[in-house]
C-alpha cells in the first residue's frame, strides 16, 4: 500500500512535468535528492548548478538585460500577460505539483497558483503605469522630473513553503520593470521550479522575440545561492527565508552595494479584545495558525486574549485543535497536511518541550502516525497556553504551534505584541473603533502587515508584502513595491537661454 503511493507519486511527477515539456532525464540527472513530504519518499534526483554554472547563467541574464531594458514596458507586459494565460492553463497541474512537493492541501496548492495569476494581472497593468513625478523647480525655464529605468539582473532565492508564488511576485514585476531573473528555488522544492520554467518557456515561445536568458533557474544549495549573492552583476537579490539566512545574505549584498529585498521570519500575533466577534475570531485564528500546517511566514504564532473572554474563546479553540483533520493532502480532504521534513518535526517537538519548561500547558502537538508512511511527518497542531511571553514564544518555529496568553491592559498588550524580533504580520479582533485605530496607528502594531478582524496570513497580492525589524524590511508584490526593481533618475531640463544656478549661487565667469 505504502509502496503504491510512492510509485504513484514518482510516476505522477514525471507525468505532470513531462506534460509541461520537462525532459524526463532531468529528473534522474544528479545527486540532489528531492522528496515529497506527503510520503517522505524520494521523487527525483537532480543535477546541481555549481558556482561556475550559476555565473554562466548570470552572464546570460546580463546579456538579456541589454536587450530587454530597451523593449517598451507595455510590450514587456505582454510577456507577463502570456505568462498569466499559461498559468491559468496549467493551474491544475502546477497546483497538484505544489501539493506533492510542499505538502499543501489541494485548495492551498491551487490558491498559490491563483496568487501567481493575480500578480501577473497586476504586473500587466503596471507595465503602463511605471510613473515618475514631475516636480516644481525653483529655476525659471526649467523642468524637473524623475524617470524609472530597469535595474539589472534580479536574483531570486525562494523558500519551500511558497515554492512558486514568491518567485512569480518577483518575476512578474522584474520582467515588466525590464529585468531578467535568475532563480534559485529551495533545495526542498526544485520540481515546481522546473515546472514554472517550462511554463515561462511556453509564454516566451508565444511572445516571439524575447532575448535568451530572460528567465533562468539554477538548482542547488549553498554554493549556488552564494554565487548569486556575491556576483556584482546581480543588481537586486530578493531573498525569502529564515532570519538566519537573511543575516548572511543582507550584509554580503550590502558590502558590494547591491540592492536586496529581504522577506524573512515572522512571529505573527493576534489580539482578541473584549468586544470581538468570537465566532469569527475563532475561525480566523484556526486558519491563521493551523493552515498550511503552520508553515507560512504569515502563520499566526502568538495569541493574546483578554482576560474577560479567555474562558469563552480558548476552550473552543482547544476543541477545534483537537478535531482538525490531519492527513495526506493528496488522498484525503484533511485541512492540515505534513510538515516538510524530519528537521521541522524535531524543531516543533523541541519548541514544545521548551514551552513546557516555561510553564506552558500543551494541547495537541503529537505525531499522527496512523496511515502515514514512516518517513513523513504529520502532527496534530499544538495550542500552548503560556503564563508569559518567554522562551520559544519569542522565536519563530516553522510549525503549527500557537502560544496563547492572557492580557488585561490594552497598552501592555501592544507592548507585548511588539516585543519580539520579527515584524511581519499582525491582527486585532475588536469591534471597538478606538482599539482598532490605535492598533493601526504609529503607536500600534510595528509590523509590515496589520489587520483588523482577519487573521495574519493569506494576504492579497495588491498590497505590498513584507515586514520590519528581523523580517528584513523588504516589500514585494503589490502597491509600489515595483520601485525596488527599478532605478530612479532625477532629470532637470533647462529650456531657457539663461543658466540660473540653484540655491541662488552666483558663478559668473
Ligand atoms: C510566505 O509564507 O512566504 O499572506 C508567503 C500569505 C500568502 C503569502 C505567504 N499570500 O499568507
Report on the structure:
40% of the residues lie in helices and 19% in strands. It is built from 13 helices and 21 strands. It has helices at residues 2-20, 51-68, 73-102, 106-126, 165-176, 190-207, 222-230, 243-255, 278-290, 307-323, 342-357, 410-418, 433-440; strands at 32-35, 42-46, 134-135, 142-150, 153-157, 181-184, 215-217, 234-240, 259-263, 268-272, 300-306, 361-364, 382-385, 401-407, 422-423, 425-429, 449-452, 464-465, 468-469, 476-477, 486-494. The strands form six sheets. It has a seven-stranded mixed sheet with strand order 12-13-14-11-10-16-17, sandwiched between helices. A hairpin with a 6-residue loop joins strand 3 (134-135) and strand 4 (142-150). Helix 3 (73-102) packs antiparallel against helix 6 (190-207). The termini are far apart. Bound molecules: 2-aminohexanedioic acid.
Amino acid at each position: 500500500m505504502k509502496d503504491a503511493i510512492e510509485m504513484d507519486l514518482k510516476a505522477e511527477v514525471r507525468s505532470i512535468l513531462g506534460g509541461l515539456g520537462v525532459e524526463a532525464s532531468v529528473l534522474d540527472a544528479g545527486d540532489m535528492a528531492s522528496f515529497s513530504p506527503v510520503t517522505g519518499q524520494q521523487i527525483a534526483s537532480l543535477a546541481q548548478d555549481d558556482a561556475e554554472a550559476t555565473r554562466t547563467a548570470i552572464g546570460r541574464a546580463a546579456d538579456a538585460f541589454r536587450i530587454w531594458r530597451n523593449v517598451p514596458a507595455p510590450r514587456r507586459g505582454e510577456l507577463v500577460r502570456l505568462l498569466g494565460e499559461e498559468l491559468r492553463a496549467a493551474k491544475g497541474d502546477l497546483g497538484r505539483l505544489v501539493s506533492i512537493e510542499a505538502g499543501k492541501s489541494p485548495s492551498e496548492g491551487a490558491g498559490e497558483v491563483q496568487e501567481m495569476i493575480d500578480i501577473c494581472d497586476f504586473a500587466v497593468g503596471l507595465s503602463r503605469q511605471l510613473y515618475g513625478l514631475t516636480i516644481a523647480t525653483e529655476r525659471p525655464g526649467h523642468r524637473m522630473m524623475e524617470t524609472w529605468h530597469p535595474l539589472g539582473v534580479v536574483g531570486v532565492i525562494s523558500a519551500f513553503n511558497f515554492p512558486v508564488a514568491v518567485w512569480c511576485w518577483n518575476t512578474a514585476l522584474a520582467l515588466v520593470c525590464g529585468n531578467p531573473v535568475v532563480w534559485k528555488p529551495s533545495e526542498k522544492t526544485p520540481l515546481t521550479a522546473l515546472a514554472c520554467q517550462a511554463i515561462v518557456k511556453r509564454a516566451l515561445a508565444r511572445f516571439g522575440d524575447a532575448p535568451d536568458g530572460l528567465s533562468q533557474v539554477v538548482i542547488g544549495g549553498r554554493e549556488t545561492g552564494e554565487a548569486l549573492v556575491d556576483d556584482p552583476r546581480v543588481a537586486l537579490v530578493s531573498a525569502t527565508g529564515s532570519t538566519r539566512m537573511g543575516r548572511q545574505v543582507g550584509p554580503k549584498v550590502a558590502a558590494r552595494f547591491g540592492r536586496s529585498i529581504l522577506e524573512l521570519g515572522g512571529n505573527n500575533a493576534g489580539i482578541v479584545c473584549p468586544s470581538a466577534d468570537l465566532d469569527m475570531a475563532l475561525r480566523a485564528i484556526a486558519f491563521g495558525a493551523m493552515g498550511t500546517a503552520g508553515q507560512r511566514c504569515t502563520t499566526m504564532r502568538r495569541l493574546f486574549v483578554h482576560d474577560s473572554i479567555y474562558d469563552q474563546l480558548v476552550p473552543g479553540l482547544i476543541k477545534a485543535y483537537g478535531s482538525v483533520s490531519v492527513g495526506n493532502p493528496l488522498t484525503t480532504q484533511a485541512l492540515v497536511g505534513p510538515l516538510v521534513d524530519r528537521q521541522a518535526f524535531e524543531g516543533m517537538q523541541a519548541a514544545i518541550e521548551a514551552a513546557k519548561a516555561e510553564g506552558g500547558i500543551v494541547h495537541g502537538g503529537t505525531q499522527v502516525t496512523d496511515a502515514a508512511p514512516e518517513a513523513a511527518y504529520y502532527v496534530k497542531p499544538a495550542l500552548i497556553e503560556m503564563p508569559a511571553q518567554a522562551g520559544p514564544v519569542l522565536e519563530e518555529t516553522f510549525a503549527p504551534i500557537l502560544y496563547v496568553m492572557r492580557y488585561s491592559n490594552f497598552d501592555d498588550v501592544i507592548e507585548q505584541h511588539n516585543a519580539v524580533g520579527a515584524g511581519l504580520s499582525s491582527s486585532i479582533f475588536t469591534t471597538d473603533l478606538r482599539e482598532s485605530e490605535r492598533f493601526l496607528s504609529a503607536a500600534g502594531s510595528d509590523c509590515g502587515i496589520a489587520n483588523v478582524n482577519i487573521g495574519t496570513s493569506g494576504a492579497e497580492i495588491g498590497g505590498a508584502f513584507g515586514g520590519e525589524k528581523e523580517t528584513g524590511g523588504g516589500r514585494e508584490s503589490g502597491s509600489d513595491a515595483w520601485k525596488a526593481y527599478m532605478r530612479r533618475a532625477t532629470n532637470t531640463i533647462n529650456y531657457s537661454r539663461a543658466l540660473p544656478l540653484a540655491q541662488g549661487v552666483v558663478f559668473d565667469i
